[in-house]
Structures are given as structure tokens and as C-alpha cells.
Specification:
Number of helices: 7
Low-confidence stretches: 1-8
Mean pLDDT: 88
Order of helices and strands: HEEHEEHEEHHHH
Structural class: alpha/beta
Shape: globular
Number of strands: 6
Radius of gyration: 16 Å
Distance between the termini: 52 Å
Helix content: 40-55%
Length: 173
Amino acid sequence: MTPAVQMLMTDVSALNVSLQVATEAPDELPSEEQFGHWVRLAIEGSSTTVPADACVTVRLVDAEEIARLNERFRETARPTNVLAFPAAAMLPVDDAEVELGDLIICLEVVRREADEQGKTLINHLAHLTLHGSLHLVGYDHMDDAEASAMEALETRLLAGLGIADPYEYRDAG
């Protein structure tokens, strides 16, 4: 077994998740531990093998910041609910933690969507954190087959948390 292979794990309990709050946050904002639980749940549910010392940053931002990022990286000049930035390489550098990537979540957009869709803020944050985390480990929804697989996994993981199918609102409309 090579050293790189020995460093990999499927048990994500040691995954380090840090939370950055760069916008006005509601009192009922989930804790860093809760965001960490959702990230770990998504990665574990995806059956992805990750480095033993991996880390993910979740950054909560306002509409202005996410719109700038969306325009810069996706050429779409508007706010969105979540952006996922997978790390380019998952190899450790000088005993540093291995970055799986960053999730950028816009609280303004998430609040508005939750209200429009009749969801709680917490449940919608859980969904978008799972969704973004799946992007970090390679899931996508660029075609119907990929979208169906990703949505089915999200729905299953959320059901385990007692959260209803997040795509129900779309299918009903």
C-alpha cells in the first residue's frame, strides 16, 4: 500500500468543517457542528473516499458577495443560493489539512427561497449544505441522469434527518 492510499478514509467523522459567517445571521442559525454534520453526512452518503485529514469551509455570505463570485466563476451576474468550489488537488502539503473545498451559501437567497417554498430556514440550509457538499466530491446535475442521481441521494439523506423531499415544491408546480 502506498502512503497516499493509507491516508484515505471512508469514515468522515474526523473531517474538519469550519464555519465563517460574513453576513448578518438570524438567531436560529445552525451551529458549526450542525453544518459539519450535514457536510459529513453528504460525503459519507456518497461513499466517497476522502483523505483522513480533510477539511471543508462553509462560508455564509450576503447577496452582493455571492453575486460577485457567481459572476466571476460562472459568468452569471446574480445571487444564487449555494456555490461549491472543489479543491483542485486532494493531496496534503507539508502536514497541512487537505482542502476538499469551500461552500459559499447566501443567507438572503436561502431565506427567500425557504419562505417561497414553505420550508424552514434550517431545513433549507441542511439541503443546500448537502447539495454543495456533493458537488465537492464530484456530483453534478449537468444532465438529466446526473441530476436524478444527485437529487435521489439528497432526498434519501434528508429523509434520514426527517426533512421532506426538497424537490417536491418544484414537481408540484
